[in-house]
Design a protein that fits this description.
The complex is a heterotrimer. Chain A has 12 helices and 17 strands. By secondary structure, chain A is an alpha/beta fold. The longest helix of chain A has 26 residues, at 179-204. In chain B, the strands form 3 sheets. An 8-stranded mixed beta sheet of chain B has the order 5-6-7-8-9-10-11-14. Chain C is an alpha/beta fold. Chain C has helices spanning 5-17, 19-28, 149-156, 187-190, 217-236, 242-251, 264-277, 295-301, 325-331, 351-360, 365-372, 374-379, 424-427; strands at residues 41-42, 55-64, 72-73, 76-81, 84-90, 99-110, 112-117, 159-164, 172-180, 191-201, 256-261, 281-286, 305-307, 312-313, 323-324, 338-339, 397-400, 411-416, 419-423. In chain C, helix 5 (217-236) packs across helix 6 (242-251) and helix 10 (351-360) packs antiparallel against helix 11. The chains are: A alpha/beta, B alpha/beta, C alpha/beta.
Chain lengths: 487, 433, 431
């Protein structure tokens, strides 16, 4: 943990310098002096640098750029360079992905079970061998929000998976329990008063040495840290009135709330936009309008698009936060990309849809300096896919976290039998360089503009399955997302 | 003379090798475990101990000979991880000072039953899900605690899960160890100062070794004498700390129970740079994922794998499956191949599991595990865990004459136990000369 | 596989997938015909409008006809005359009098058909009378609320025809109603067949626990066969018995029967009873869990399969693979494989997603589009009116922004019997 704090502090420097000098093709000389900044991780000079290169894919950086047939080079778990004609060090692990696409690892704003049975204190509880972690990676998720923390799906290691231990504090504001509203508002009033008094005291105490410091007793710690900008306030709210109340509270006290659910958000989008709300929603949520309510209400497939247009950050999450292998597909946490697709259906631009499952949730959790897009200095967390990420037939072929390949579709049990990779593409890790790789003519480089999948006639016959055995024990538990769709 | 009221010996029992008496046993083959296989073996049992083992040794006239060329003899089995005959319940705190010997109840009828299945040594551990306390190694026959106990306090059972409390227990314990080291160092400093002009040669004494359990227990006076005679007596550690100090210097061993792969990483993380002597208890659940941490290389772990460290691992003889599938795995065999030392225990503490123990291990042998490794896992390696490898676990000179006589190869399904000898006495089976 | 159908269909699938590019061209460049595709088909009657006739011409970027030749026209024109499709083919000028409805950049596809739906009453409830195991007298049409809120959303998902059926709580729960998802229609206007077919629940729900017969599979089977045999006997004796009248029609192949059967055992039992023994026009619905294990045998009996709502099986294969059931049925050679949502188990408007997910797990996506359109129409004997864009059929047309299976594709307009039911621009986006 300590180790990572130090590393991320250095990274901030690296990331910010990068922003200033950012150019479309960010080729950097791998060896020389300028590259040192992202090396915060290794203090010990004796430790050898670990290089990794993903070569020849169409790199979708997540910031809007696409670099066709480019190379992304990683050093010690961070992105060292992105571009063409990079000098790849000899000892780099080279992964040739010509004809494939490269995307930033997805960020699930909220999930359950991907870290094993861990619920909290993830440094001590993460299960980096959990099969659900593999399924999460297969779905492209490399970082997830869980129990208020932001944690990486880092396989085979219990070290450094937690990116932000306290990404947000959950607060309650609900018209169904009106007392929560007055109580919370009171807490904000008190905390704001305390901050004022504290500032006053700091100013005055320079002259008046014996001035007593204002008392902190009775001040809500969570609210205080929200007002100080140390953590984010997260609300679960979907009713129009509650959303308006939260927006007013946020404007009054000057913080930007995260609102999870936000089903009727589209009816008060302007207010939420003005309050700078960050919204977590399920594009497909269904809820009918309260007939007592005269204003418009209920859910709308356009929710994401409307909120996006009004200036809210929008992160998308599927109907179910856990992994559900019961057979009803298209709804669980593995379907982030499908849910983003439904947001597109409702009018969200494709770019914003991709961001709604990458950089936006990363920003909400305060980890966008590390993950959420492919930029020099950020973590080497990326996906190699066989097509447009948002297409329903696209599979993650490989996933990398911290520069390490942690998922290979062909080598894991779950999806290997579905449209197996042609043999030529399988020789990942063969240590060959980009030049030695024959051009793959089966992959048209053109027209992926509106997201059709590449034409693959790969035969789908996988290996014959063994005969099924009814209802064996030890099944994965099905997790249900609790309670947000009442009404 | 030890009495053994419940063992039904045949009327024609010809050669009871009673204490003070001598018996020569001639069998077709002896699998000594420590010294390989001896064909046409002769074992001389004297005063309940093995006096000599060899191929076709001439037997002195006058010594009774038991001639069983159709038999194979192996060392008595050692169940090093058992709660047989115990029924207390433990908590999940740090209580390394609890002792299993305190709940040993010699009259439990279970003990004499397992002897029939070749189990001649047991190590009992205290119940609990934290640091639950110290084991006791026993011979499963005897009317009193004294008659049963071989050694007390050999390993400390420690359960580690992927959670904060179990990691904290370990970290906290070593913090206390550190505090104790400081205390000793200060006491030493004060002692030396008070003793001004005295010998200074010990000033750089290794802090970690400042606690010598043998000295503390006053067992070896001579050692104490030769060490240093400046009269310094380190402060006494409290009873919860003492076992940790002992584990650090190897005077006791931890037996760390893990049930999934992540537990190993979290245990290593909790241990950090601290050192302690330990073996592992690996709980093999049906979909166990422990194979992930057998070696460092396969999955590029941050830390060495269990096999890399050549650790002794106590496991039940079961075939498992890869999670989510029906594909069987022989984890004990995989563990062996990766460098780990396999120690078998019965699948459970029931008498039926003791009876099935040898055939359960046989299933793993049939599935590819080498038979000699499997036998070692039930005997000598288990004795190492129990801390009594100097006394039992192999057929070698000076060890207890705990022998299991079999009608064939140990892991053949048709092989039966013909007789069991415990400390030189036949305690099971018909032995006619 | 190697049946004659494959090549054609694979080509169709490839063309459909390659479609986005074409759609792009259509969007940004001048429309052009895809050339290789066969021309449009003429209805029996003339295209010209007579007095009192109404005509509509839709010029769209692409038409997925789902006809026997798997024709895809891009760009395409669809002529609708008096609520029926009069012509579907490459872009052409409309005859005089046709109202022109531009649909630039949009794809046209047939309205989807769902054979396993419980939303006719507006949600769950009103679907199962559980007093008696055999309810040959009960008719789902009595519970139908045309244009209810769930139905309205179904339209916006491109679903235009539903077989609304009773639940699976009893062995023979009654007769389903076949109706169109018209948003503002009277009963008579929405309903295609008041008694559209029988609903049978083979096992996995109708088990009776009250101490009467039907606690076991054997009991359930006897209940079903007893009812069937009685119906046959009554028909043979020409006896009047209202309670068995419709059932007798099932036995005589005048009506189809949809059978709820889940795992492999129920799946096989249903095929033996309804296909092999009674030779009814049965459709085996669900086929979930381990049912794919008996797929080759089911296919050999000739009983059509209606798969869903579970589209994968992970639990029973126990080899770690997440198995797409539709892919398994196609692999076994299933013809006219159709898909279902079992709505409201899954939302009715997400029928297309069942196709998308099945495709994700290995099935061919064109086949999955067939499974939501022409295949269910065919196995229920509705293909003379529904399931494809062909001259002479009902003008049930879905116009969307891209592939009908892609969640990102927005349904812009839906016509049923030539009448505009849903227009996103006019109504706002319902889904």
């Amino acid at each position: 943990m300590k180790y990572f704090l130090r590393a991320s502090a250095l990274l901030l420097v690296a990331a910010s310098t990068h922003v200033a000098t950012s150019a479309p093709a960010r080729a950097q000389d791998p060896a020389p002096a300028g590259a040192k900044k992202e090396d915060g991780k290794k203090d010990d000079a004796k430790v050898e640098d670990k290089w990794v290169a993903v070569v020849g894919g169409d790199i979708h950086t997540g910031t809007g750029e696409v670099l066709k047939g480019a190379t992304i080079l990683g050093k010690n778990g961070r992105i060292h360079a992105i571009g063409y004609d990079l000098d790849v060090p000899k000892d780099a692990k080279v992964h040739d992905v010509a004809g494939m696409r490269v995307y930033p690892g997805l960020v699930a704003i909220s999930s359950q079970g991907l870290l094993g049975n861990a619920m909290a204190e993830f440094d001590d509880t993460i299960d980096p061998f959990s099969s659900r972690m593999v399924l999460g990676l297969a779905a492209g998720i490399t970082t997830t929000g869980v129990g208020g923390s932001a944690v990486k799906l880092k396989r085979f290691s219990v070290d450094g998976a937690v990116v932000n231990e306290r990404a947000y504090t959950v607060m309650s504001w609900s018209g169904r329990n009106p007392r929560t509203k007055s109580e919370l508002r009171e807490k904000f009033v008190e905390a704001a008063r305390y901050i004022r008094e504290q500032r006053e005291w700091e100013r005055k105490s320079k002259e008046q040495k014996d001035l007593p410091e204002p008392k902190k007793t009775g001040i809500d710690g969570g609210v205080l840290s929200v007002l100080r900008g140390e953590t984010q306030a997260k609300f679960n709210a979907s009713d129009r009135d509650d959303l308006l109340g939260i927006a007013r509270l946020a404007q009054e006290f000057g913080f930007r709330p995260i609102i999870d659910g936000c089903q009727e958000g589209w009816t008060v989008a302007d207010e939420l936009g003005r309050a700078g709300a960050r919204v977590v929603l399920t594009a497909r949520d269904r809820r009918s309008k309260d007939e007592q309510q005269s204003a418009s209400g209920g859910t709308s497939i356009e929710n994401a698009a409307i909120l996006h247009r009004s200036g809210c950050m929008v992160a998308v999450t599927p109907p179910t936060e856990g992994i559900d292998l019961g057979g009803l597909e298209g709804r669980d946490i593995r379907m982030l990309t499908i849910e983003a697709g439904f947001a597109v259906r409702g009018g969200l631009p494709e770019k914003a849809a991709l961001e709604s499952i990458t950089i936006v949730p990363a920003r909400m959790m305060g980890i966008s300096h590390r993950v959420g897009s492919l930029e020099v200095g950020k973590d080497f967390d990326l996906l190699v896919t066989d097509g447009d990420l948002l297409h329903y037939s696209t599979y993650v072929q490989w996933a990398f976290v911290d520069g390490r390949m942690v998922y290979d579709k062909e080598k894991e049990l779950y999806y290997a039998h579905i449209r197996p990779r042609p043999a030529a593409e399988k020789k990942l890790d063969a240590g060959e360089t980009a030049e030695s790789k024959p051009a793959d003519e089966s992959k048209p480089q053109g027209e992926e503009k509106d997201g059709e999948k590449k034409d693959d006639d790969a035969k789908k016959e996988g290996d014959e399955k063994k005969e099924g055995e009814k209802g064996g024990d030890g099944e994965k538990k099905e997790e249900k997302k609790d309670g947000e769709q009442q009404g | 003379m030890k009495t053994c009221t419940t063992i039904a010996l045949a009327a024609a029992l010809a050669a009871p090798a009673l204490a003070g008496e001598t018996l020569a046993i001639r069998v077709g083959r002896a699998q000594t475990v420590s010294h390989g296989v001896v064909e046409h073996a002769v074992i001389l049992v004297e005063d309940g101990r093995i006096a000599i083992v060899g191929e076709d040794l001439p037997v002195e006239r006058g010594i009774p000979v038991l001639d069983r060329p159709e038999w194979t003899v192996v060392p008595g089995f050692v169940n090093c991880y058992s709660r047989l005959g115990c029924d207390s319940e433990g908590g999940d705190d740090n209580s390394p000072d609890v002792k299993a010997i305190d709940e040993l109840w010699p009259k439990s009828p279970a003990y004499k039953e397992v002897v029939k299945h070749g189990v001649t040594t047991l190590a009992l551990y205290p119940a609990g899900n934290g640091v639950s306390g110290q084991s006791v190694a026993i011979r499963p026959l005897g009317g009193t605690v004294e008659e049963m106990v071989l050694k007390d306090g050999q390993y400390v059972k420690i359960v580690v899960r992927s959670d904060s409390p179990s990691k904290r227990r370990i970290a906290d314990a070593f913090k206390k160890v550190e505090e104790y080291d400081d205390k000793v160092a200060k006491a030493r400093e004060k002692f030396d100062k008070d003793k001004k002009g005295g010998s200074k040669k010990d000033e750089k004494a290794d802090e970690k070794k400042s606690f010598d359990p043998a000295a503390q227990e006053g067992k070896s006076d001579d050692k104490k004498d030769e060490k240093k005679d400046d009269g310094f007596v380190p402060p006494q550690p409290d009873e919860k700390l003492r076992p940790w100090l002992e584990m650090r210097v190897g005077a006791k061993r931890g037996l760390v129970a893990l049930s999934q792969a992540s537990d190993w990483l979290h245990f290593q993380d909790a241990l950090g740079k601290n050192e302690m002597a330990y073996d592992l208890r690996l709980v093999l659940q049906r979909e166990s994922d422990l194979y992930y941490v057998f070696d460092k290389k396969t999955h590029e772990l941050d830390v060495d794998g269990i096999g890399d460290k050549q650790l002794r691992c106590v496991v039940e003889p079961v075939l498992t499956v890869t999670a989510g599938t029906l594909r069987t795995r022989n984890l004990p065999h995989e563990l062996h191949r990766s460098g780990g030392k396999v120690v078998f225990i019965p699948r459970n503490d029931s008498l039926g599991d003791h009876q099935a123990w040898r055939s359960n291990v046989g299933e793993l042998v049939a599935a590819g595990m080498p038979a000699d490794v499997a036998l070692r896992a039930m005997t000598l390696e288990a004795a190492e865990v129990a801390g009594v490898a100097d006394l039992v676990g192999s057929i070698e000179k000076g060890k207890h004459a705990n022998l299991v006589f079999l009608t064939g190869a140990p892991f053949e399904a048709s092989t039966k136990i013909a007789a069991v000898m415990l400390d030189g006495e036949f305690v099971h089976g018909e032995v006619n000369q | 596989m190697g049946d004659e159908r494959t090549t054609n269909e694979r080509n169709a699938g490839a063309r459909m997938r390659a479609g986005a590019a074409v759609a792009c061209l259509a969007l940004f460049a001048a429309c052009r015909s895809s050339g290789a595709v066969a021309g449009g088909r003429e209805a029996s009657g003339p295209l010209e409008l007579g007095p009192g006739d109404s005509g509509v011409a839709i010029h769209c970027a692409k038409a997925l006809t789902l006809d026997d030749g798997d024709s895809i026209h891009a760009p395409a024109t669809i002529l609708v005359k008096n609520g029926k499709l009069a012509w579907v083919g490459p872009r052409r000028a409309a005859p005089a009098g046709y109202e022109t409805l531009p649909a630039d950049g949009l794809w046209a596809s047939p309205g989807m058909v769902e054979l396993h739906s419980h939303i006719h009453s507006g949600g769950f409830g009103d679907t199962n009378d559980k007093v008696l195991p055999v309810n040959g007298e009960l008719r789902a049409m009595t519970a139908l609320r045309p244009g209810n809120p769930l139905v309205r959303r179904a339209v916006a998902g491109g679903v235009t025809t539903l077989y609304g059926i009773p639940g699976s709580g009893t062995s023979m729960s009654g007769f389903g109603v076949i109706y169109k998802t018209k948003v503002d229609a009277a009963f008579e206007d929405a309903v295609l067949h008041r008694v559209g077919g029988l609903k049978v629940a083979q096992s996995y729900n109708p088990e009776r626990g009250a101490g009467d017969l039907g606690r076991t599979r054997a009991g359930l089977a006897w209940i079903l066969e007893d009812a069937a045999d009685r119906a046959k006997a009554l028909r043979a004796a020409d006896a009047e018995d209202l309670s068995h009248e419709d059932l007798a029609k099932v036995m005589e192949r005048e009506l189809p029967v949809l059978i709820h059967c889940a795992g492999s055992d129920g799946f096989a039992a249903a095929a033996r009873m309804w296909q092999e023994k009674y030779a009814t026009r049965c459709v085996l619905s669900h086929g979930c869990f381990d049912a794919h294990a008996v797929a080759p045998w089911i296919v050999a009996t000739g009983a059509p399969i209606n798969a869903g709502p579970r589209v994968v099986d992970y639990m029973t294969t126990r080899d770690g693979a997440i198995t797409g059931t539709a892919a398994k049925y196609l692999e076994a050679g299933a013809k006219d494989l159709s898909l279902n949502t079992d709505s409201p188990v899954l939302p009715q408007e997400e029928l297309f997603l069942q196709g998308a997910m099945s495709a994700r797990y290995g099935a061919d996506d064109y086949q999955m589009l067939r499974g939501c359109t022409i295949a269910p129409a065919r196995v229920f004997g509705l293909d003379h009116r529904l399931g494809s864009l062909e001259a002479g059929k009902d003008a049930d047309i879905v116009l969307s922004t891209g592939s009908p299976l892609d969640p990102r594709s927005r349904v812009e307009r839906v016509y049923i019997d030539g009448a505009l039911q849903y227009d996103r621009a006019r109504d706002g986006q319902w889904f």
